[in-house]
Amino acid sequence: MKTFRHLFEKLISLENLQDAYQKAKKHKSKSPAVIKFEKHWRLNLINLHKELKTRTYQPQPLKTFILRDPKTRTICVSQFRDRIVHHALVNILQPIFEPRFIYDSYASRKNKGTFPALKRFNTFLKKVTKNGKLRSDARNANDVCGFVLKADIKHYFDTVDHKILLKIINRYIKDEKVLWLIRLILNNHYSKLPGKGSANQRFADLSSQAQKGMPLGNWTSQFFANIYLDELDQYIKHKLKIKYYLRYVDDFVILHQSKNMLIRYKKQIESFLHSLTLELHPDKCKIIPLKRGISFLGFRCFYYYKLVRQRNIRKIYSKLKDMLEFYKSKNIDAKDIQETLRGWNAYAMQGNTYKLREILAITIKQELMRPT
Length: 372
Known about the structure:
This protein has helices at 8-11, 14-24, 32-39, 41-53, 80-97, 114-128, 156-159, 162-170, 176-186, 199-209, 219-239, 259-274, 310-328, 334-348, 354-369, and strands at 63-68, 72-77, 147-152, 245-248, 251-256, 286-289, 294-296, 299-301, 306-308. It is 51% helix and 11% strand.
């Protein structure tokens, strides 16, 4: 196993920090924090370089807010200069870990994402069903053979164990200064899962949580999430030798012709996850016949078509309604609404949504043409 040393100087180099700065401000150039940093960006990067070199750098407290999208999530946002450090760190670590990740991990990776994941899911669907072989009791063309184990990990980002994560990283990274920076970033957040039991038990839980969890919203969290769950990926692909497995962050699916085989896989995966201090979500881990359609990445996927989930349709209608109100009060331009609509259309085109997209486009056009 190849290990890597002497990475810190490259990490804190002004060249790497400048590249990280450009990445951190992408699509955020209008943010007040970015504008403030940009006024003296060279001096600010030099100061950041000095703090990292002398190891006096300290990340600022995270800003947290609640997002209902539609499920309630706590999002944690780092200060802009800290986000530069996150990008600088991932710039160095990504080329080391990326070749080790399996092909069918689709979140937060170059040339991956939701669209390739849906396309790959469709490929698996064809293979498992032998190109749409129908069940003996089929009532329509989508009553195909086969099953899927659909699962996600309970409170994944809140339960990632720092010690285990650092142990995994330390197999390859032998630079103590880089590990110091990783620990610093991890320790800037702690899990806030609700405590149970007596006051002493809750205090013990709080102490253990100080070494667990990663904030939703940090680029490092997304990258570390892939490193951590690559352990599961490797187990599934190389120990269990499962062919039709696909993961997007903490959501994953396994397709198979046999329901009993999926029950067996589920038990083996549950057992393995204990070694990572993780567990499957009891309410979201199910074995479902493929004929019923599978909810995956915002779509309900059947053999011959994909439909956008109703909650995602409600979400875009609600968002556009709010934007139209801002437009009428002259707080945003029509192009902002049109850009949002184009982005949603690019997403919705992955499914059978022609009529839906046409109705939405006509509605928005009519609203924008109304006199204000």
